[in-house]
Amino acid sequence: MNSDSLDGRLLFAIPKKGRLYDKCISLLAGADIQFRRSNRLDVCLVLNHPIALVFLPASDIPSFVGKGNVDLGITGHDVILEHQMQDYVTEVLRLGFGKCSLQVQVPESGPLQTVEDLAGKRVVSSFRHLSQKYFGQLDDRLQLSGETRTQIEYVGGSVEAACALGLADGIVDLVESGETMRAAGLHAIATVLETEAVLIKSKSEKRPNLAPLIDIITARIAGVIAADKYVVCQYNIPRDKLAAATRITPGRRAPTISQIEEEGWLAVSSMVEKSKSASIMDELVKAGAEDVLIFNLNNCRV
Ligand SMILES: Nc1ncnc2c1ncn2[C@@H]1O[C@H](COP(=O)(O)OP(=O)(O)OP(=O)(O)O)[C@@H](O)[C@H]1O
Ligand SMILES: O=P(O)(O)OC[C@H]1O[C@H](OP(=O)(O)OP(=O)(O)O)[C@H](O)[C@@H]1O
Predict the structure, then answer these.
(1) What is the pTM of this model?
(2) What is the DSSP string of 267-289?
(3) For ligand 1, what atom is nearest to the CA of residue 58?
(4) What does the pLDDT read at residue 2?
(5) pLDDT band at 1, cuts 50/70/90?
(6) Residues β-bridged to residue 202
(7) Which of 174, 182, 187, 194 is the pocket-test mutation for ligand 2 (most atoms within 8 Å of CB)?
(8) Predicted ipTM > 0.90
(9) Ligand 1, from 14, 61, 174: best to mutate by most atoms within 8 Å of Cβ?
């Protein structure tokens, strides 16, 4: 592919592998962004929009978008802060996946059990800047100076092994389920930040003509996320119990209420959060609802 074929196309950066990759691919499918990625090729043209997808390491995406080489991207909120790109990119949408916390961890049975204990010792992390910032502030508060300040050492991966290998007294690493941390005999003593995947666009506005397409893609992705988060709940309810039932299912704007062919009964349809749908159904039945149905959404614009 030569650079001419990218002319005028919106460049959209997607993590090329790792934790965010699969979810990004299903987001693109849900937003009907069609592409065929040839083996090992990191740039590919979208078939049904003037877009080219650029597959990059998640950690490089904030800089590419921030400098305006790429117009849109998906990466972790943590990565943006680590690369100090928050002033150069706009976080357009939180994507609801890649959720985890960046935490300070120490050996469970070791002598250091607070961040104050750990200050001045050796800390290993892949998040050099965020660790330096966190412990820098702590060292300042504890009035540590010179050689007594915390030493931050960078490693590219398998951070959890650093304490057992004698490289560190504590680490700063991502925790989702906590399995990696527990398996390494560590536990968390502080949270540096909470993160999730985000859709970002450049603040550079090098190519203002792309703004309408960016808005369309953003709306489509927002629709896919909402469709995954919500279900439609439909039920029949005696008229005199309607107020109590609609307090349980107020909907995003308001519930839809329709007449049915039975005197004294109404039908209600409302969007509810998927994660709460089972308890909402229990409550509705308790409130007098019958024929309670839940429908998945394929896609939506809300
Ligand atoms: N265990 C996890 N659970 C949820 N999200 C995670 C987890 N680990 C990482 N992430 C998110 O995914 C982003 C990319 O992490 P990942 O380890 O997949 O990429 P990477 O480090 O660039 O890949 P690799 O180490 O394979 O080069 C992280 O910055 C974070 O936002
Ligand atoms: O709390 P958990 O669910 O166990 O997830 C946390 C682990 O996931 C990430 O690493 P990853 O597996 O991506 O590998 P890496 O060490 O190569 O970054 C992170 O660095 C932790 O090690």
Answers:
(1) 0.90
(2) EEEEEEEGGGHHHHHHHHHHTT-
(3) 22
(4) 60
(5) low
(6) 89
(7) 174
(8) yes
(9) 174
